[in-house]
């Protein structure tokens, strides 16, 4: 079941109608116990979800959002010496899997606060004019953000970090560096109340160097998150970094990073 940010009543109603019957129903005698269908949050936003009655365990699979791609260089940008290099691709986000206890303890602990991270912003690569002068990037992309699940009024929290930003192309005609696997000095992935399995994403590729003012360097490819069959099945493409913008006379902005995803299994 995939949920979208439409407000708490819609979330509660759809979860009650489908997820409870799937998770809590007992198999007939002689039947194998099927894996419960997950509840999936695949669009960026914040959500509130009530833990179903009778549930004691939550397995969560989270991926943060990818970093945005850096902008390419236009040869007429000030201080860029006629270069036309491509911007770097954004880094892929981290993926975390963790199982935690959600047994009833406190009234507030019945609720989960869920955040699906929005993708890192794209870096500017367009040539602009302001107050009679010429100014523009190339700018770096935005950092990826954290996807999280937090049990209200309790210390339990699961976090998946976003990917690093792709860099704008350099003054010397070199392509911008790709985003690394995690934002330097930024948030890290963690799970309080459980033993997590954490996998970092792949770095974005650097943009191509400029062969000259009349040539164009291609932008770097965005990095991907670590392979996960749950992510691939329920929210493919989530956590991928945005590609870098190409350089040249038609220089381009980088692409925005892909949003994160949260997958929940109750039992």
Structure explained in plain terms:
The chain has 2 helices and 13 strands. It has a 6-stranded mixed β-sheet. With 267 residues, it is mainly beta. The protein has helices at 8-24, 229-234; strands at 2-3, 39-41, 45-50, 57-63, 95-101, 111-116, 127-130, 133-136, 147-151, 157-160, 190-192, 197-199, 261-266. Helices cover 9% and strands 22% of the residues.
Please name the defining characteristics of this protein:
267 residues; mainly beta; 5-stranded antiparallel beta sheet; 2 helices; 9% helix
Mean pLDDT: 82
Biggest β-sheet: count, sense, barrel?
Answer: 6 strands, mixed
Total helix count? 2
Question: Order of strands side by side in the largest beta sheet?
Answer: 1-2-13-4-5-12
| Structural Rg | 22 Å
Binned, the helix content reads under 10%
Shape: elongated
Straight-line distance between termini: 15 Å
List unreliable stretches of 5+ residues: 6-28
Strand % is: 15-25%
SSE string, helices as H and strands as E: EHEEEEEEEEEEEHE
Number of strands: 13
Strand pairing plus helix content: what structural class?
Answer: mainly beta
Short account of what is shown:
With 267 residues, the protein is mainly β. The protein is 9% helix and 22% strand. It has helices at 8-24, 229-234, and strands at residues 2-3, 39-41, 45-50, 57-63, 95-101, 111-116, 127-130, 133-136, 147-151, 157-160, 190-192, 197-199, 261-266.
């Amino acid at each position: 079941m995939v949920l979208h940010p439409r407000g708490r009543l819609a979330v509660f109603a759809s979860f009650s109608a489908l997820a409870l019957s799937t998770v809590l129903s007992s198999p007939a005698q002689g039947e194998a116990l099927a894996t419960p269908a997950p509840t999936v949050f695949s669009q960026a936003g914040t959500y509130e979800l009530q833990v179903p009655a009778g549930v004691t365990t939550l397995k969560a699979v989270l991926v943060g959002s990818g970093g945005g791609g850096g902008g390419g260089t236009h040869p007429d940008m000030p201080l860029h010496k006629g270069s036309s290099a491509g911007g770097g691709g954004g880094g892929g986000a981290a993926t975390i899997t963790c199982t935690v206890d959600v047994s009833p303890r406190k009234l507030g602990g019945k609720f989960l606060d869920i955040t699906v991270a929005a993708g890192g912003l794209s870096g500017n690569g367009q040539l602009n004019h302001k107050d009679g002068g010429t100014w523009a990037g190339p700018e770096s992309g935005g950092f990826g953000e954290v996807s999280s699940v937090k049990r209200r009024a309790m210390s339990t929290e699961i976090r998946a970090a976003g990917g690093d930003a792709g860099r704008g192309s350099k003054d010397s005609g070199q392509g911008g560096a790709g985003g690394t696997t995690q934002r330097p000095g930024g948030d890290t992935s963690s799970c309080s109340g459980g033993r997590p399995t954490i996998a970092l994403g792949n770095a974005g590729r650097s943009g191509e160097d400029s062969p000259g003012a009349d040539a164009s360097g291609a932008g770097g490819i965005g990095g991907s998150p670590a392979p996960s069959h749950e992510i691939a099945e329920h929210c493919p493409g989530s956590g991928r970094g945005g590609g870098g913008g190409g350089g040249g006379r038609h220089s381009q902005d980088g692409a925005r990073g892909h949003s994160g995803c949260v997958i929940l299994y109750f039992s």
